Amino acid sequence: MMRKNVVLALVGLILGSLATVFVGGELGMVGSRYVRRGSHAKLDATAPLPPGVEKTTFGSGCFWCTEAVFQELKGVHATVAGYSGGSVKDPTYKQVCSGSTGHAEVIQVSYDPMVISYAELLEVFWQTHDPTTRYRQGNDVGTQYRSVIFYHTDEQKKLAEEYRHKLDEAGLFPAPIVTEIVPFTEFYPAEDYHQDYFSENSRQPYCTFVIRPKVEKFEKVFKDKLKPVSPN
Q1: 147: helix, strand or coil
Q2: Exposure string (b/e) for 17-39, b if CB count within 10 Å is 16 or more?
Q3: pTM of the entire structure?
Q4: Is residue 53 part of a domain?
Q5: 160 closest CA partner among 131, 180, 144, 135
Q6: Is residue 160 in a domain?
Q7: Cβ(156)–Cβ(56) under 8 Å?
Q8: 97 is catalytic
Q9: What are the residue ranges of helices labelled H in the chain?
Q10: Number of domains observed in the structure of the chain
Q11: Is residue 228 part of a domain?
């Protein structure tokens, strides 16, 4: 019953705020320089998690965009961009982009559930991409851009499935949600130049015209969940 109430509450939040996620926003910017929020570590996918920290894996289009959003959240300890859900061991970016490996571009997130819950992460996930287009996010087209949740625990699976069902029941989106909810198996970190891509390359055209507007809108809607701006 508690989990059901959480799902219903989050659906209500989305219904109330989705209209604003696609309009103007606020971003921590100084001139054309991106301002980093708080401290952020890189996640070693092979290392044991610190006590109390949990892990999840999301795919919602280009992992440059997804990481730029999730690493700004309070309670997110670390992120790493990578590949999951395919059949080839340790694939390269070029192989994944070819569509031949079956991998999705994902981010793996370690988070403190005492600061940000898995339900809150799901709220951010479903509000910051289009979960009704199977293999497309904007101009990014291909199986690697599919909407997918790789759950690490049975509890993550239950909450994600209930949340997806309630969103569909509410008719929030103009088409059925096609987000895959599948068990996590393997994760392969992407090449180094993909990590922290937005913060390291904020003046590149893709960052300026694609990622930055998305982050601006995200920060407008979720401003109460953001890390403070780092003094450095």
Answers
A1: strand
A2: eeeebeeebebbeeeeebebbee
A3: 0.81
A4: yes
A5: 180
A6: yes
A7: yes
A8: no
A9: 2-21, 63-70, 93-98, 118-127, 154-170, 197-200, 205-206, 212-221
A10: 1
A11: no
DSSP string, 181-229: EEE---EEEPPGGGTTHHHH-TTSHHIIIIIHHHHHHHHHHTGGGBPPB
Q: If you count them, how many residues does the chain have? A: 232
Token digits of residue 131 = 């979960």
The model's pLDDT over 138-183, given as tens digits with 9 standing for 90+, comes to: 889 999 999 999 999 999 999 999 999 999 999 888 899 999 999 9
Task: Please choose, from the candidates 231, 232, 188, 224, the residue with its C-alpha nearest in 3D space to the C-alpha of residue 72.
Answer: 224
φ/ψ of 40, rounded to 5, equals: -150, 130
The boundaries of the domain holding residue 28 are 2-222
Residue 207: left if φ>0, alpha if ψ -120 to 50, beta else—which one? alpha
Any idea which residue has 């700004």 for tokens? Answer: 72
DSSP string, 31-42: TTEEPPBS--EE
* Burial class of residue 116 (count of CB atoms within 10 Å of its CB; 0-12, 13-18, 19+): buried
Per-residue pLDDT tens for 99-130? 999 999 999 999 999 999 999 999 999 999 99
Residue of 199, 118, 129 lying closest to 160 (CA atoms):
118
Q: Annotated catalytic residue: which of 62, 65, 97, 207?
A: 62
Looking up residue 53, the CATH number of its domain turns out to be 3.30.1060.10
154 Cβ contact partners less than 8 Å away, ≥ 6 residues apart: none
